[in-house]
Amino acid sequence: MVACKDWHDVPAGPASWMRVTAIERGQYPHPFVAFMAGACYHCAQPVCLKACPVQAISKREEDGIVLVDRGLCLGRDQCDKCLKACPYKAPQFGAEKNPRMQKCDFCLDRWAEEKLPICVAGCPMRALDAGPLEEMEAKHGKTRHAVGFKYHERIAPAVLFKPKPENMPLPI
Fold first, then answer.
1. Quick check: 102 and 68 in contact, CB under 8 A?
2. pTM
3. Residue 78 half-sphere exposure, CB side, CA atoms within 13 Å?
4. What is the pLDDT along the chain (172 residues), one digit of tens a residue?
5. Where do the structural domains in the chain lie, given as residue ranges?
6. Cα three-residue angle 18-158-35, rounded to 5 degrees
7. Any idea of the CA torsion for 165, 166, 171, 172, to the nearest 10 degrees?
8. Cis ω for the linkage preceding 29 (within 30 of 0)
9. Is 133 helix (H, G, I), strand (E, B) or coil?
């Protein structure tokens, strides 16, 4: 989260392109704790794109990266249809007056240099990876479900998981 905000100069405040949520369930002696990274999942059929009345959101043909043109965006005070449409809360808005939508752009500048997004490069647990979906499936499998995440077939978020089993015993 910090690497992303720092790399993209996202000021302190409500906008966070990468979010990490703690998921806690159960109770002693069988608690379950996991962490879910959430950003824009660059969906195959992004509902934010369809919801935008001014075509400020686009999807690149060559790699599927979903981008926003903040100059075209009407702003949260006049329109927040992208946020209402996205089940993953990827569209983010700052604290300023009528903030324009902002979101993960897959570190397009780094991607162009064949570098991984900063969240992947900066993750101290090496829990994130990025690349063409087919390559990621070959490397990590095809699991699209995890505790704390609902996969929507219709919009097909480009995300895979290696989920933590809920019944994993605690180390002694």
1. yes
2. 0.90
3. 12
4. 999 999 999 999 999 999 999 999 888 888 899 999 999 999 999 999 999 999 999 999 999 999 999 999 999 999 999 999 999 999 999 999 999 999 999 999 999 999 999 999 999 999 999 999 999 999 999 999 999 999 999 999 999 998 877 776 655 5
5. 2-140
6. 40
7. -150
8. yes
9. helix
Q: Cα-flanking dihedrals φ and ψ of residue 90, to 5°? A: -70, -40
Contact by Cβ (8 Å): 86, 48: yes
Neighbours of 130 (CB within 10 A): 18
Task: Give the number of C-alpha atoms closer than 13 A to the C-alpha of residue 147, restricted to the C-beta side.
Answer: 15
Query: Is residue 96 within 8 Å of residue 82, measured between CB atoms?
Result: no
